[in-house]
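A reminder before we start the practical. When you read a complex entry, don't treat the lines as separate problems. The point of joint prediction is that each chain is placed relative to the others, so the output describes one connected object in space. Small molecules and nucleic acid strands, if listed, are placed in the same frame. In the example below there are two entries. Take a minute to note the order of the lines before looking further.
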Amino acid sequence: QVQLQESGPGLVQPSETLSLTCTVSGGSINNYYWTWIRQPAGKGLEWIGRFSAIGSTDYNPSLKRRVTMSVDTSKNQFSLKVSSVTAADTAVYYCAREDIDVGRRLDQWGQGTQVTVSS
Amino acid sequence: DIQMTQSPSSLSASVGDRVTITCRASQSISNYLNWYQQKPGKAPKLLIYVASNLQSGVPSRFSGSGSGTDFTLTITSLQPEDVATYYCQQSYSTPRTFGQGTMLEI
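Here is the predicted structure of the whole assembly.
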């Protein structure tokens, strides 16, 4: 059974860069799209973007200027960076797997990690 | 971007009731519609994919239907453990977008 686990600092200073890593265990990072989604407290889900191990990426236009995603296949990890953060970037951040062969469903999710932007 | 609109935003029902949540897309998304259940403090969990396919391990009281722009999630015989927020999501195009959620209470 594939498991995903987010990790990274829980507190980020305004104007700095938020950096998170998702570690995939129990399966390969190849052959799927890997997705980041966030959820501010008490609000809905926002799709940040996705990428594949072969380097194909799609970012949400609302965040595109500030977002970078990358992968380390040797460690079975993928990463998210969001630059120039503000309080509006405070949220629980989830990584998830998109199964592009079966309905492009988000079938595996990490437990989520809280990131707070504050000085 | 494709806008996803769910109704109602919140719903209160009794154990054993049949519950229906609807989701409407701002343009046709064929059947690229998924449903997720999120319990407080937990990550979302996939319930239904490609509009009507039940994810492995999900109870059969959950079902989905629809195509094009209009979709429905139905829970027959509501159980106490079904208290959650439900989200639809289109996977037809990027950016992927979610409905605003339907909070289900008992």
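Discuss with your neighbour: Chain B touches chain A through 24 residues (CB under 8 Å). What might explain this?
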